[in-house]
Structure formats: structure tokens, C-alpha cells
Task: structure prediction
Amino acid sequence: MTHGIEAAQPHWFYDFVSPFSYLLLEQHDKWPTLAFNATPIELDTLYRHWGGRAAYSLPTKRIFTYRHALFRAEQLGIPFRMPPVHPFDSRAAMQLALATNADIQGVREIFRFIWREGRDPSTAEGFASLCERLGQNGDVLQAANATAQAQLQRNTAEAIALGVFGVPTFYLDGQLFWGEDALPMVLYCARTPNWLESKEVQRVSALPSAVKPD
Result:
């Protein structure tokens, strides 16, 4: 049985393929003291839905993105090692998180396997090592795979319905906060929620466009 996203609850949307999701989770001690539901979604599906292109699909942006992730990790003092290939297929790792009902600590352990140790969870060997790391039986997980896959697809569809366009994204009080560098804004809005109702925020949120979309 799959479960729907409760729009009234705070969520944190992630994909294990995202280095910035890892970097943001490593700053969990700075997050607002709210019970965010760690919710895996498929980043590539978001790109396809919204008509965007992944950073790694553009050669110069790909290089910058990896350098920026490394720079941010060094700036924040977070251990960081790129996996041997990127992008990789993150669906098995996300289904593992769902099948095991992983909490923030469990999700962090998977992120660290990938982004701290530089491992690839999409290979048979890498996934087996990850299951062993979490104390999970691969055969049991295989049996739960169909349910976890359906849940991942539902998570992604419902995130899109909320307007989520990338990861990492905080969803709080019906508002979206995207990116590792959005944490200060999340903290501010958690303390001062009426800021979003201020005149200037409302004005910029409703600006018309002078250019028609393609």
C-alpha cells in the first residue's frame, strides 16, 4: 500500500543523486526544530515534467556544479567525495529508503555511503554493500521492491502537484524553499512566517512576465 503526502505537514524532498541534498542534510542540526518528513522523489522526472535540463546534461554546467558542490563542502567543513560516476541511477537507493521506512538518520547513512565514501549504489556490488551497511537482507528488499517503486512514483507525482521543481526542497506552510543555500530563508520564515505576507514579497511573487514562455 502506498501513502500520500500530507500537504499540511513539513516535508524535505530529496534524491540521492543530488550532492546538494547531501550537503543540506549534513547541516540537519541547523534546521528548524520541526518534524520534516524526508521524502524521496525522482529528480529526472521533475526535469521532464517542467521541461528543464539537468545540470549534468550541459558540459560546462556539469563541471561547475561538481566544483561548486566540492567548494561548498570544503567551505562548510563537510567530508565529501564524488562517487565514481555521475549521474547514477538512484532509484534503487530511494526504494531502499522507502522499503525500510528510513528516518533522517537512515537517509543520512545512505547519503554518506554515496557522497562521503564515494560509492555507487546503482551497481549490484554497491547496492549489496549498502544493504549490508544498513543491516538489510537484499532478498527481503527485492520482495518489497514493487511497493517501494509505486511509493516513489506517487511521491514524485504528488511533489509535482505541490509545485516542487528540484531538490533539495523544503516544503513548509504551503511554501517551497529550494536549494542547499535556501536554509537561511527557511530558518527566517520559520521564525517570522508573516514575512511571506509582507507587501514587497507579495509584489515580487505576482510580477508579470514580459516574455511569453516557449
Remarks:
- The radius of gyration is 18 Å.
- The chain is about 50% helix and 5% strand.
- The mean pLDDT is 93.
- Residues 59-76 form the longest helix (18 residues).
